[in-house]
Design a protein that fits this description.
Structural class: alpha/beta
Strand order of the largest sheet: 1-3-2-4-6-5-10-11-9-7-8
Radius of gyration: 21 Å
CATH architecture of one domain: Alpha-Beta Complex
Largest sheet: 11 strands, mixed
Order of helices and strands: HHEHEHEHEHEEHEHEHHHHEHHEEH
CATH superfamily of one domain: Amidase signature (AS) domain
Shape: globular
Strand content: 5-15%
CATH topology of one domain: Amidase signature (AS) enzymes
């Protein structure tokens, strides 16, 4: 049995049947990380000792008759999610050396379910970016072509799962930071409804937009993780206190009669021809599986990009005000208190500084109503677009990104062009709906393309079943991308 090629749910069943052990699977992952991650740089921290201890405990629990949902399954965490006993840097020098004394809610849920934590994956600094090039530490590479980006900001998690360096991984999605890297790396990534998963213990970027999501090689892998991490948490005031469905049980493989809307605004000038062609074919495949395809309109989509960057930057400027050299991370030595704060905050990278300044300007006296206030009003219009559309369709299908993975360094000095990589994912976050990306082919350069499936509030089970049904109808290529061993340049 090739343990590396197994999906998360396949490994879980192999563990249940006694065909392998958690220690064996964990060691195989750790060995593969050592062999390949010098090329990918997907991990910032590898928790080898912790992982092997957890794997040993999982095998002992199974021998004693226990069987929890993720017992013995190795998983990675985006380094914006707090894990006691390991650094949490959020990809920033300003949090270098921060070791949280507690676990995030989602980490406690994973551990209760028996998961093994392999380590912390790279991220754009404070999750601000679309390529993982904004990390203060390393630039993660795409497993399909190490000269290209994996997407962002959860690029480390997406790359690790795609390359077989983890069976699953958690990320966060504020404006597309799970779905876009999932598309670029050829894996499945879900962004649940806002409030479906607690944000407690997750370093804040934009509090009305942030949401924890998960990556897997299949929709079933993602469903298994979401079933564990979803749920109410009284420590998070935005956490939804409603029952969590069995997402795996919802994977029936039947979408007959489902109405799937295709928004005309997501097929616009500038989309790469290979991307549009692959997504159109995927939509035709859904029709062949029994779904009814309906053309729809989301007319305020064109305002999603400016609205998102005003709201997200305003919230970021407020959230990041707490990093002043007295509570977290390093403290610069200044001539006085003001100079100390100034020098400490100089540790922020260029993209974070850009967004703090933009947000502070949008919130400043005399400009609040003109920029931030107006953006909130247009956000309401975008939410109303989705509400109206979901009165007549069950799911929305569209491209995840207008392009496939671009080259490292290609857009780093062109912020607007970089932001456009998320133009099809941003509106969902503004609407508080749920969405996922599922692979739907390769372009002429052999780079993955993602089909985005958007559901109404709390309809994760529905979009997961559409993705699962689509996967089951296509012949599966079990080959992992060929990642060269050795260090990147």
């Amino acid at each position: 049995m090739d343990i590396i090629s197994l999906t998360l749910t396949e490994l879980r069943e192999a563990l249940r049947r006694g065909e392998t052990t958690s220690v064996a699977a964990t060691q195989a992952m750790l060995d593969r990380i050592v062999a390949l991650d010098n090329s990918l740089l997907s991990y910032l921290t590898i928790t080898e000792e912790m992982a092997l201890e957890q794997a040993t405990a999982a095998d002992q629990r199974r021998a004693a008759g226990e069987d929890t949902p993720l017992l013995g399954v190795p998983i990675a965490l985006k380094d914006i999610i707090c894990l006691s006993g390991a650094p949490t840097t959020a990809g920033s020098k300003i949090l270098e050396g921060f070791n949280p004394p507690y676990n995030a809610f989602v980490v406690d849920r994973l551990l209760e379910a028996g998961a093994v934590i392999l380590g912390k994956t790279n991220t754009d600094e404070f999750a601000m970016g679309s390529s993982t090039e904004n990390s203060a530490y390393v630039t993660t590479r795409n497993p399909w072509d190490i000269e290209r980006v994996p997407g962002g900001s959860s690029g480390g998690s997406a790359a690790a799962v795609a390359a077989g360096l983890a069976y699953g991984a958690l990320g966060t999605d504020t404006g597309g930071s799970v779905r876009q890297p999932a598309s670029f790396c050829g894996v499945v990534g879900i962004r649940p409804t806002y409030g479906r998963v607690s944000r407690w213990g997750v370093v804040a970027f934009a509090s009305s937009l942030d949401q924890v999501g998960s990556f897997g090689r299949t929709a079933a892998d993602v469903a298994a993780q979401l079933s564990v991490i979803a749920g109410h948490d009284p420590r998070d005031s935005t956490s939804l206190n409603i029952p969590v469905p069995d997402y795996e049980a919802a994977l029936t493989g039947d979408i007959r009669g489902l109405r799937i809307g295709v928004p005309r605004e997501y097929f616009v000038e500038g989309i790469e021809p290979d991307v549009e062609a692959a997504v159109r074919v995927a939509i035709d495949d859904l029709a062949a599986l029994g779904a009814e395809i309906v053309e729809i309109s989301l007319p305020h989509t064109q305002y999603g990009l400016p609205v998102y960057y005003l709201i997200a930057s305003a919230e970021a400027s407020a959230n990041l005000a707490r990093y002043d050299g007295t509570r977290f991370g390093p403290r610069a030595k200044g001539a006085d208190m003001i100079d100390t704060v100034r020098q400490t905050r100089a540790l922020f990278g260029p993209e974070v500084k850009r967004r703090i300044m933009l947000g502070a300007y949008a919130l400043s006296a005399g400009y609040y109503d003109e920029y931030y206030g107006r953006a909130l009003k247009v956000r309401t219009l975008i939410k109303e677009d989705f509400r109206r559309v979901f009165e007549s369709v069950d799911v929305i299908a569209a491209p995840t990104s207008p392009a496939t993975a671009f080259r490292v360094g290609e857009r780093i000095d062109d912020p607007l062009n970089m932001y456009l990589a998320d133009i099809f994912t941003l509106p969902l976050n503004l609407s508080a709906s749920c969405g996922l990306s599922v692979p739907c082919g390769l372009d002429r350069q052999g780079l993955p393309i993602g089909l985005q499936l958007i559901g109404d509030t709390l309809q994760e089970a529905r979009i997961l079943n559409v993705a699962h049904t689509y996967e089951q109808a296509r012949p599966r290529d079990r080959r992992l991308p060929a990642v060269p061993a050795g260090a990147t340049g």
